[in-house]
Amino acid sequence: MWNFEKALATAIKKAGVTRDGAEMHITPHMLRKAHATWLKQRGVDDVILQPRLGHAPGSRVTAYNYVHLPSEAMKSTIIDLETEKTNLD
User: Fold this and answer.
1) CB-based contacts of 55: which residues, under 8 Å, 6+ apart?
2) DSSP letter at 17?
3) How many other CB atoms are found less than 10 A from the CB of residue 36?
4) 16, 19, 36 from 12: Cα distances, Å
5) Which H or E run includes 2?
6) Average per-residue pLDDT in the chain?
7) Number of neighbours of residue 49 by Cβ within 10 angstroms
8) Where is 18: in which H helix or E strand?
9) C-alpha of 70 from chain center
């Protein structure tokens, strides 16, 4: 029987994927979360994302446990009211 986790570990080793000088341990679940985050960053709505992940419509699991936006993405959503006020004048 083919073992995906073993194949993934072999591929990571062959590719030389490291973090802080050490070989990274990447699991299929980490790839699943990364995929969900990648889709969300590109504007895919939860209505599309949730069934793709096998989550119930309206499930909070998707947003709270699967989508991890980088701090830069969160910072880009901040509205600077002073700048906005200047732009309106």
Assistant:
1) 49, 61, 62, 66
2) -
3) 22
4) 6, 12, 21
5) none
6) 82
7) 19
8) strand 18-19
9) 8
Residue position matching structure tokens 């995929």? 35
Give Cα separations from 57 to 10, 32, 40 (angstroms).
36, 18, 16
Task: Band the pLDDT of 41: cuts 50, 70, 90.
Answer: confident
Domain ranges of the chain: 28-88
What is the pLDDT, as a whole number, of residue 54? 92
**What value does the mean pLDDT take over residues 60-89?**
70
pLDDT value, residue 24 = 87
Q: If DSSP states are collapsed to H, E and C, what string results for 41-79?
A: HCCCCHHHHHHHHCCCCCCCHHHHHHCCCCHHHHHCCCC
Tokens representing 69?
């936006």
CA 61 – CA 59 distance, rounded (Å): 5
